[in-house]
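Deviations from the work plan: none for this task. Representative record:
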Amino acid sequence: MERTPQVAKEAWEPRIVAFLCRWCSYAGADLAGVSRLSYPPTTRVILVPCSSRISPYHITKALMAGADGVLVSGCHPGDCHYLTGNLVARRKFIVLKRLLAYLGIEEARVLFSWISASEGEEFAELIREITEKVRAVGPFRGFLREETRDTHV
Amino acid sequence: MSEDYTRALVETLREAFEREGLDRWIAYAPSRVPLRVRPTVFTSPDELDNLIFNGFCVQNLAGYLKHHPEGRVGVLVKGCDRRAINVLIQEKQVSRENLFLAGIPCPGMLSRTRLLEEFPGLQSDQVEESGETVTVRTPDGPRTLSRDDMLLPTCRSCHHRIPEDVELLLGPPPFAAPEAEMDFSAEVGPIGEMPRNQRAALFADELSRCILCYACRNICPLCYCDTCFTDVNQPAWMTPALEPGNIFFYHVNRMMHMAGRCVACGSCEWVCPEHIPLRLLYGKITADVAELFSYEAGLDATLPQPLSHFSEDDPDEHIG
Amino acid sequence: MTRTNTSDSRFLLRDDLTAFLSALSERCELWIPQAVGEGVRFLPYREEALLNLDQTPPDHPAKSILFPNTETLFRYERTEDGAITLIPQETTNQPLALFGARSCDIRAFDALDAVFLKRSAPDTSYRQRRNRLVIIGFGCLDPAATCFCERMGGGPFDEAGMDIQMIPLPEGYLFRTLTDRGKALIAPLASFFKEADPVTASQAEALRRKGAPHPDGAAVDFAALKAAVEAGREEPFWESLAAVCLGCGICTFACPVCSCFSLVDEGALKGGRRIRHWDACMFSVFTREASGHNPRGAAVDRVKQRFFHKFFYSLENGEPPGCVGCGRCVTQCPTCIDIREVIDHFQPGEG
């Protein structure tokens, strides 16, 4: 997959793909919006039925296609609309997160969170926080690239 | 000495083939290719004359069950073949009752790469295995090596050489390496301690040699999907262009598929025409699954698999 | 290609090889066999590359110099107003020198030429590279146990297709210039060479005439093999190969002759490209059609196709046989599917 050319570093803003579950986190994001809370416009939200719908394919594909960071957010444990989807997802994500870190991808690029429908303020705060985390590690230049070997840290 | 063992083995298996009325027997036969044997599907007891067992029987025979699902099948299993069969049973790819398993206490398999490095042009008939040594006949006379030194890296760290739950447990071969002291994931810890940039560089160097021939996938006894994610093209997750993004995508996602399933048979590693040390990747997944979920793949076919399962007390250190 | 009337021989001392390659690399795009990881493959020259002329044959064939594993054929860009601009790949006329390839890999170029140049529409990017190519071949002193080039009509010192043949001798290398193109390539580097003294020249000549003794059967009669393969299309022999074939791509990727490829369009909003990449008849998706139907759906069909292409279809089409006897598929096949056994099966009594 070809990556679009990076813009100059001064103008660079992180691009974060956020996979949000439709029952909790997406509603939380909605609440942040209707409450007129402000947070950085760095996320591109993708609505999914459940955090367990997200597989490592989606996360790695987002990075391969030009995202600087990926967020997956779902219901708090116990609140899943499908009862246990988020618990299965939790197992999958911890293995993936550790694996990507082991392979040398900065940990800040792949983030997981639980946000409920009532947590508009928490959602806004989460986006502020992860935007800063991703900003700190800089633009993602692609997997296994020369440039990934001595970046930004 | 190993010839006597093989002859006795053939007779035992032939007797079982006839007595059990099996449709076929999956084991190994010799080949003309240096330091390699051929996995073979024997269809009648007479053909078994050609069967052999030695330190080059590296192919995991569980993989052949996916190609030959029908009928009652006998399989000669080492520890790792047996464990892979357990995973296939867990995933309902084979039924235990259709299998007749003859377990062989595995002596540890020899690394063809190491031997050829040491003895370029070496042929199978120059290698004599006995006890804890391997003797190589060279033009300058015989050279005796420690079997342990010549093992495949994954065999050096195998703690499950003796297959369990088999119909027939065969006697140990007259050649075997001592018990492994190392763990499959032993090399993973030190890599995890390296600075991130160095790890990134290490894997960039190793994986950049990948040619996406998919031999690691095809030889894996546990890869049986009709359509692999690599081949989905409407729309495509990845393209076959030989570029770092596609290579990384392939390996990460294949590793995730193997989490909680990989039995550390080492097939993907020895088959790799680019000699990519895949044990460093699959060892990581195996170590994490063991640490996080106290699970080791292929030991018990009745347990649920860790990644299709959960506990309310699972770790959540990764949730921000 | 013009052959010079008499081959002109010059001698390069072993110790001067590194400096020679460095100087050569400044005059052309140079590819050399180099050790990468635990294997040897042909890659563009770099000062720090580890030259390896010893491994017979290198793990990878030299075909990637003409037919890269992945190649962008063109790019396109789409502007805001929707207009699409095609951007062709850049071309150059700089010579492309292949150094140190053995005769098997070079003979395989005939088969690639047949596919990419001699069919109805020549392939432009292949032709462009082929026209630039100058070959410094390597006389092969130590064929491996799995080599069988002589059975396939070649030989370790076969010079067909080479512009220069390099013969390894104890103190260095004898360069036999065979074509004008080869002469032009090394003419500016004359200072590296000395005249071959008569003893050296006769040593080299002896090697070249003797070839390397090879026990592995008699030369293949391709017409007879083709007929036998065709007559044996339904033999259970094929099933015995398919029973153990894993369906991976090692044999085809390692083969200097295999040339199957696929085209993929990678498109995004602002542009994209068309790539060509190696594909393999051993992959079941290679022939899967859009409808889902797969004309070679069973492993046995795919195994048969590989050998039919090599020993039947290519000959039927008047193209060179699809095997040069390098033995790479033999050593690299994880389950010992051995092309020599296929040949022996259909030509009994000659193995």
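Chain A has one domain: 20-138.
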